[in-house]
Design brief:
single chain, alpha/beta, 15 helices, binds iron/sulfur cluster
Length: 355
């Protein structure tokens, strides 16, 4: 069994558990004294302010913040102590939207989405409601955490779920340091089980992608060359296949912000992000084609804004009032954490955005 090495900010009663304290940190100091430009000033230089949606193609639904892991850099501040869970009533409101939306993709996230007691029912109903592509962001260890989850690979296969899984490194040491003791071994077993039902195999339609995020205060390297290294190591050492590696930049919020401050890396990291700003990455940031829905049905520009409690700037703020035309006509709420999406090749839940 994997053992969390730390606790959520909420459980530690850290000041950073409060979204307004995070936003204050991101607005003060180097950004208020003019040392670094704010994100709004930066994108204004390339006439991209205000940031506007293209059109909603992806509904990303966070079905709860509970997780069996407590990873060091989690932007959700998830963990076993988090009790926020989407109810069936809110799921029904989401299904009503799925029936009528022009969005083609449903992206289920958490916490560990599989821990929501209505997770399987929701997936089945979402498929019936017409969701074309369904993504589940699985932390892998949940597939091994309890007998009741052991058949999830079969369930995913039956519903043709696209599985996207975190795997910060191909070595035990680096993975366990970031995600908790024992996570690497359990993740390897879970990947082998997914491969055994066909996930991630060459030419398989059952999509299995892995997500890499850096283990410290640095930006990810080149996605394609990292993918080669991951594929070689996981195949040689464990016989594991997967399709794509998505390299994601850690955004300076929640537990990663806490880590940056505690390790005295906050300012250096913000300098790195601002130095690596890539105006062409702004076109493809995920908030331009995604709406994020929280466990209690509120709407956000992205999962990061959800954690910062920045609801969409629209008359429509809840899934029960969903109106796609109104939501497509809004200004996206930004702050300095957005630099994490536009550094280098850019970063989104689908990995780099400008390759
Ligand atoms: S990063 Fe993912 S697996 Fe880790 S604590 Fe957060 S939600 Fe759970
Ligand atoms: S953090 Fe969210 S709002 Fe900001 S650029 Fe990234 S996706 Fe968009």
């Amino acid at each position: 069994m994997s053992k969390p090495t730390q606790q959520s900010l909420r459980r530690r009663q850290s000041e950073l558990a409060m979204a307004n304290n995070q936003l204050e940190k991101l607005s003060n100091g180097i950004f208020s004294n003019g040392e670094l430009p704010t994100f709004a000033e930066k994108i204004n230089q390339s006439d991209q302010f205000p940031l506007r949606p293209t059109k909603i193609e992806i509904l990303q639904i966070n079905v709860g913040y509970m997780c069996n892991q407590v990873c060091e850099h989690c932007h959700v501040d998830a963990g076993p102590d988090r009790k926020e869970i989407m109810t069936k009533e809110t799921m029904n409101q989401c299904l009503e939207v799925i029936r009528n939306t022009k969005a083609h993709t449903l992206d289920l996230t958490g916490g560990a989405p599989e821990m929501n007691p209505n997770f399987r029912w929701f997936v089945e109903e979402a498929r019936k409601a017409g969701a074309k592509e369904i993504i589940v962001r699985s932390n892998l260890t949940i597939l091994r955490a309890n007998k009741k989850y052991y058949d999830l690979p079969e369930f995913f296969k039956e519903h043709n779920i696209h599985v996207i899984s975190s795997m910060p490194h191909w070595t035990r040491g680096k993975t366990d340091k970031q995600r908790g003791e024992g996570v690497f071994d359990q993740s390897i077993k879970a990947l082998q089980e997914l491969n055994a039902v066909g996930y991630g195999m060459p030419d398989s339609q059952l999509k299995l992608d892995l997500v890499y995020n850096p283990s410290g205060a640095f930006l990810p390297g080149d996605q394609k060359s990292m993918e080669k290294d991951f594929k070689k190591a996981l195949l040689e050492d464990f016989g594991i296949h997967f399709h794509n590696l998505l390299a994601i930049t850690n955004l300076p919020i929640s537990r990663f912000l806490d880590y940056l401050i505690a390790s005295d890396n906050y300012e250096d990291y913000m300098y790195q992000l601002v130095d690596a700003f890539n105006p062409s990455a702004v076109h493809n940031v995920m908030c331009r084609n995604t709406i994020s829905v929280s466990w209690d049905g509120y709407l956000y520009d992205c999962d990061f804004n959800q954690m910062l409690e920045l609801k969409v700037n629209s008359k429509v703020q809840h899934i029960s009032d969903y109106n796609e035309d109104l939501l497509n006509d809004r200004d996206i709420i930004i702050s300095q954490h957005c630099y994490g999406c536009t550094a280098g090749a850019g970063s989104s839940c689908q990995g780099a955005v400008t390759n």
